[in-house]
Write a structure and sequence with these properties.
Helix content of chain B: 25-40%
Order of helices and strands of chain B: HHHEEEEEEEEEEE
Shape of chain B: elongated
Largest sheet of chain B: 6 strands, antiparallel
Number of domains of chain A: 1
Distance between the termini of chain B: 66 Å
Shape of chain A: globular
Helix content of chain A: 55-70%
Number of strands of chain B: 11
Distance between the termini of chain A: 25 Å
Largest sheet of chain A: 3 strands, antiparallel
Mean pLDDT of chain A: 83
Structural class of chain B: alpha+beta
Low-confidence stretches of chain B: 48-67
Strand content of chain B: 25-35%
Number of helices of chain B: 3
Number of strands of chain A: 5
Largest interface: A-B, 58 and 46 residues
Number of helices of chain A: 16
Order of helices and strands of chain A: HHHHHHEEEHEEHHHHHHHHH
Oligomer: heterodimer
Low-confidence stretches of chain A: 4-16, 448-455
Radius of gyration of chain A: 23 Å
Strand order of the largest sheet of chain B: 2-1-11-10-7-8
Chain lengths: 455, 167
């Protein structure tokens, strides 16, 4: 019977229904969040108090509502995205709460925890609205050019007089009536919709037309036109908003979508060369970008360490992570508040200190899984627009995570972007939960992609 | 709290978050390996196993291949090419195939024409008609000239894509 057992093409592993898997993983995720918060309280306050529920229950409640909505409206949606997002968001809230307790113990008053919970609730509610009110993934395709204008508008908004704000050297915020908002976060969604819609119609000419030189098909000049335009726009963003990360994010997104649409590596090579050249020239001629480069390459020199806007924050973050070592100090056991902006830009350094390398890798793997689910949705989807949209949205999360964590760990120059779902900040949470909502909506429409067809 | 208790909590948390990671990976694993598409004819030729969960209802591959399709066929299953595994329900009387985006089965392939072929339901038989495509449509290995009847579980190839009609 052994050779018969080897010939079993018909055995079909039957997957339990998506939503039941999701329910289990959600319970697990909520448990992890409760564990984090109690660990924080036990090690800082040494007792458990009901404040835990203030930070635990609102996101958990919203997650259960999202789960219920998906049971009714998107029952075939991917079961892993929501639990992963909830764990990352909860980990962020727990660390921010921990930093708040540290701040209060040291006599400070500026706390972010409650604000973060409120923004999480708003952002998850918007994600629920996306799942309910976006009837299908193709709905967005009708608004390709509208989203171009929205995207460019949002991107340029921080440069407007009166409402534009310059915080820590980067012109990325708008401020109205005391509230600050980073419109670039939402611009990335609008621009992904635009790029996906535009490339679906243009992919043929980008992929096939061109002369062959040495076996390489060189695209015609006019096919390169849009790439040059986006490249110029991203350099304008770099010069005017003074942020390398934002500019790299949009340009990288465009290049990846061109590559996904055409399958031709030459666009990636040309694009990267153009971007690196542009960034190097900018760093030579713009003091601000050059300073960031210098702090990145030589952070430990006394001059950079002491300089205003120099490498002090970066070096403190590195010391923090070194203090954490392999296993970390445990949530609440470290001193992450020594790093400026520990709750937003440097939350990954705080988590690295308290969870150690082991915990840091768990976080990175969670991002990897989130992104791989998104890319798999794109891969499985029968419709080209949705393919590009899902790939683009997941790649935005991947690239942004890389730019931020790479910045904190000195792989790339430090920039003003936020760690998706972890960092304190309303605009970032809102944008990333919208992305989660759209990905869930798209994954529901794959239709049979996750089931076996061997009926 | 004592040092020891804190140490246990701290290590325990790292363990729990990794267990979460691996439980997600195991779900993904089921997702990756749960999907398997095998040609029905090849399947019928494979040795039969009594305990096989999906035993072909018809004994012998002859009768399986020679069945008329017609209203029996309920779906189109792509078994090879970039869209392997996709299923299209045959609930219309006509199904268009090609590179153009309004096709029912969109084939993204340099060897497929914009409007490459279509399946039409006539007298309870599904017919494949080649719409004067550049690289042709192949029914069971032979190029389709005039519209031909597509039997159940017979492969139709367009470019790199191969599909079958199934009950």
């Amino acid at each position: 019977m052994t050779n018969v057992a080897a010939n079993l093409p018909k055995i079909v592993r039957v997957i339990p229904r998506n939503r039941n898997i999701e329910a289990l993983l959600l319970l697990f995720a909520i448990g992890i969040n409760a564990f984090e918060l109690s660990q924080v309280q036990l090690s800082i306050l040494e007792v458990l108090n009901p404040e835990i529920f203030l930070y635990l229950l609102p996101p958990a409640f919203l997650a259960v509502i999202l789960h219920g909505i998906m049971r009714l409206r998107a029952s075939e949606a991917d079961p892993m995205i929501l639990p992963i997002a909830l764990v990352l968001n909860g980990l962020g809230i727990a660390e921010i709460y921990r930093l708040d307790l540290g701040t209060l113990a040291n006599g400070g008053t500026e706390v972010f925890g409650v604000k973060q919970v409120i923004w999480t609730v708003i952002a998850m509610a918007v994600a629920a609205a996306v799942i309910i009110y976006v009837p299908s993934h193709l709905f967005l395709r009708r608004y390709v050019y509208v989203s171009m204008f929205i995207g460019v508008g949002l991107l340029l908004a921080p440069m407007l007089p009166f409402i534009g704000l310059n915080i820590n050297g980067a012109q990325l915020w708008i401020g109205v009536a005391g509230f600050t908002f980073q419109p670039g976060e939402l611009a990335k969604i609008a621009l992904t919709v635009f790029f996906a819609g535009y490339l679906v119609t243009r992919r043929e000419s980008l992929a096939i037309v061109g002369r062959k030189i040495f076996g390489l098909r060189i695209p015609r000049a006019r096919e390169l036109g849009p790439i040059v335009t986006i490249w110029a726009a991203s350099l304008v963003v770099l010069v005017l908003e003074r942020d390398l990360g934002t500019s790299l994010l949009y340009f990288g997104l465009f290049i990846v979508l061109v590559y996904t649409a055409t399958g031709r590596a030459i666009y990636v090579v040309v694009g990267l060369t153009m971007f690196i050249t542009g960034a190097l020239v900018a760093s030579r001629f713009m003091g601000y970008v050059g300073g960031r480069f210098d702090s990145w390459l030589n952070p430990f020199t006394q001059a950079n360490y002491d300089a205003n806007g120099g490498s002090y924050q970066l070096v403190q973050g590195i010391f923090g992570m070194a203090h954490g070592g392999l296993m970390g100090t445990g949530l609440g056991g470290g001193i992450p508040h020594l790093v400026p902006l520990a709750e937003s830009d440097f939350i990954i350094a705080s988590l690295g200190e308290e969870l150690g390398l082991v915990g840091m890798f768990a976080i990175l793997v969670l991002y990897l899984l989130l992104v791989s689910r998104g890319i798999r949705i794109g891969f499985n989807h029968p419709d080209d627009f949705s393919k590009l949209l899902a790939t683009g949205l997941s790649f935005v999360i991947a690239l942004q995570t890389f730019i931020v964590i790479g910045g904190v760990t000195r792989v790339v120059p430090l920039t003003g972007l936020t760690t998706p779902l972890l960092a304190a900040g309303g605009s970032s949470l809102l944008a990333n939960w919208i992305i989660i909502g759209v990905l869930l909506r798209i994954s529901d429409s794959i239709g049979g992609g996750n089931r076996t067809v061997n009926l | 709290m004592s040092e020891l208790a804190l140490f246990i909590v701290r290590t325990g948390f790292l363990a729990v978050i990794w267990i979460f990671v691996f439980s997600i990976i195991s779900v993904i694993r089921a997702d990756l390996f749960g999907q398997k598409v095998v040609s029905r004819v090849a399947e019928a030729n494979a040795p039969k196993v009594v305990s096989a969960p999906v035993a072909p209802s018809n004994p012998g591959n002859q009768s399986l291949v020679m069945q008329p399709s017609g209203s029996l066929a309920t779906k189109l299953v792509v078994i090879d090419g970039p869209k392997t595994g996709s299923v299209i329900k045959l609930d219309q009387r006509e199904l268009t195939i090609g590179r153009s985006e309004d096709s029912d089965l969109i084939i993204d392939d340099e060897y497929a024409s914009t409007h490459h072929a279509k399946l039409i339901l006539i007298n309870n038989d599904w017919l494949i008609q080649d719409l004067n495509s550049t690289n042709g449509t192949y029914l069971d290995g032979a190029r389709v000239g005039t519209p031909a009847v597509v039997k159940l579980n017979t492969s139709v190839r367009i470019g790199k894509t191969v599909f079958e009609l199934r009950a």
